[in-house]
Amino acid sequence: YxxxxxxxxxxxxxxxxxxxxxRTKAIVIINPNxxxxxxxxxxxxxxxxxxxxxxxxxxxxxxxxxxxxMDGLEHISIASMAPDLxxxxxxxxxxxxxxxxxxxxxxxxxxxKRIAEDYIEGLNMLSNMRLCSNVPAQSIVQxxxxxxxxxxxxxxxxxxIYEQREYIYEALNSIPGITAVKPKAAFxxxxxxxxxxxxxxxxxxFALDLLREKKLxxxxxxxxxxxxxxxxxxxxxxxxxxxxxxxxxxxxxxDHYRQ
Length: 259
Known about the structure:
Elements: E1 3-4, E2 10-11, H1 13-19, E3 26-30, H2 42-55, E4 58-62, E5 87-92, E6 105-110, H3 117-129, H4 135-138, H5 141-146, H6 151-154, H7 160-173, E7 178-179, E8 188-189, E9 192-193, H8 195-198, H9 203-214, E10 219-220, E11 232-235, H10 240-256
Parallel strand pairs: 3-4, 4-5
Antiparallel strand pairs: 1-2, 5-6, 7-9, 8-11, 10-11
Helix pairs in contact: 7-10
């Protein structure tokens, strides 16, 4: 389904409804969102719950960025709004605790589990037969979740993630031909390219050209199933001085680039 750039990158409910058939099993959401940095408010989540309820669909919700929320906003887990539906919520520590290579995560099954007995049986069978728990990683979960939440210092004014978000938003919008919606969460921004200005018809080619010429790696919009060659994702996790160097290179690139 389409997420609408003109509406803070929220899901297009009409598009979701139009794509539901008698074969549809579930709705998947990523909230906070990768690649847009959007955070879905309660009213948007309620509309998704209503659609799932009307069609008896499972909700799969990836919420791994739930602690990386800025501007005093609040992340709401959609499962808390749908106790009558079967929900699978995914989360972990790799993003919020800045330990991307230290893989530890979890799935939470909630709501009407009766309608998903076969699915749960399959999960149990898989975990019993084929998966080996990462015990060293598991040992940090209790401390990570119950101890001091250092991430809270990153996402307020003066904090690293907040200030990097502020910088990259202003910097990208200052490049002629580039515009971007300000992200509210996570550490991604999904800028729009004026394709006519740069004669871009292939966004993957654009990303490769940028990589080869300026040694900058971005993900083209098509990598996220975006339907036009006019977007790319920037990760603003590097420190501001690194981002400044990257933006300088990107500005120089767009100053002369024509595909």
